[in-house]
Design the sequence.
C-alpha cells in the first residue's frame, strides 16, 4: 500500500490531543487569502446544502482568524510534507488543506490548544536541534524532525508531545485533502451516479407469471424520458 493509499484510511480516524501555546513570526504564502476567499464563496453558495443559520455561522467563522501568519506557514509546510504533489495530483496546500485546518479549529475550538501547542513544541524542538524555528529550517532538517515524531512506535519518550501533535496534524491533513475536489479525484471516486433501469428482466417476470401493463411501460420505462422528473395522474 503506497503513501496516499495509507493516508486515505486516516481521513476517517479520530483527532488526537496535543500540548501548549503560541507561535513565531513569518510570512504567509501569497495564495492563502485567495484560497480562503474561494472557501468562503463555497460556504455561501446556494448549492452548498446548508441552512440559513449554518451559512451565517460559516460566514462568521470564515471572517475570524485563529492561527497567526507564522503558524499558517508551518501548517502549510507540514501538510505538504504529509501529502506532497505527485504525478496523480497536487499537494495538500494545493487542495486548500491549511485553510481547512484553520476552519476546523474555529468550528471545533477544543482543537485550538492542542494544535497551537503542537506548533509551539515543533518550533522549540527545531530551535534545539537546528538553532532556528521549523519554518526556517532546511527541507532536510524539517524531514529529520518530522521523522522523529511521524512513527509513534519508534519515537523516543521525550518526543511524545510531538507525536501526539503530528498524529492530529496528519489526520486533519488526510481529512482535508480527501474531502476536497482534488482529493476525491485523486481517489478516482465516482460517487453515486444515476444509471439506467429497464425494469425487471422479461425472463424473471415470466418466471413468476408477471408483466408490466401498458401504462407502467409508458410512464416508467420510456428511455427517451430518462432524466425527467416523474409526474403522476391526480
Sequence:
Amino acid at each position: 500500500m503506497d503513501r496516499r493509499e495509507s493516508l486515505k484510511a486516516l481521513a476517517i480516524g479520530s483527532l488526537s490531543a496535543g500540548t501548549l501555546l503560541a507561535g513565531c513570526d513569518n510570512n504567509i504564502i501569497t495564495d492563502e487569502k485567495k484560497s480562503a476567499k474561494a472557501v468562503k464563496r463555497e460556504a455561501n453558495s446556494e448549492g452548498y446544502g446548508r441552512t440559513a443559520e449554518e451559512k451565517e455561522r460559516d460566514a462568521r467563522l470564515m471572517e475570524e482568524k485563529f492561527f497567526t501568519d507564522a503558524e499558517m506557514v508551518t501548517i502549510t509546510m507540514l501538510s505538504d510534507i504529509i501529502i506532497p504533489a505527485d504525478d496523480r495530483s497536487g499537494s495538500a496546500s494545493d487542495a486548500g488543506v491549511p485553510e481547512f485546518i484553520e476552519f476546523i479549529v474555529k468550528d471545533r475550538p477544543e482543537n485550538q490548544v492542542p494544535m497551537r501547542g503542537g506548533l509551539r513544541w515543533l518550533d522549540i524542538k527545531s530551535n534545539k536541534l537546528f538553532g532556528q524555528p521549523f519554518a526556517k529550517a532546511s527541507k532536510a532538517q524539517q524531514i529529520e524532525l518530522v521523522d522523529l515524531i511521524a512513527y509513534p512506535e519508534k519515537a523516543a519518550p521525550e518526543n511524545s508531545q510531538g507525536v501526539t501533535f503530528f498524529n492530529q496534524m496528519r489526520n486533519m491533513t488526510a481529512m482535508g485533502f480527501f474531502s476536497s475536489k482534488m482529493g476525491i479525484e485523486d481517489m478516482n471516486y465516482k460517487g453515486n451516479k444515476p444509471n439506467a433501469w429497464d425494469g425487471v428482466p422479461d425472463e424473471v417476470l415470466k418466471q413468476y407469471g408477471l408483466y408490466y401493463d401498458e401504462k407502467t411501460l409508458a410512464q416508467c420505462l420510456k428511455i427517451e424520458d430518462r432524466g425527467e422528473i416523474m409526474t403522476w395522474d391526480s
About this structure: The longest helix spans residues 112-130. Residues 160 and 194 are 48 Å apart (CA to CA). The two ends are 57 Å apart (CA to CA).
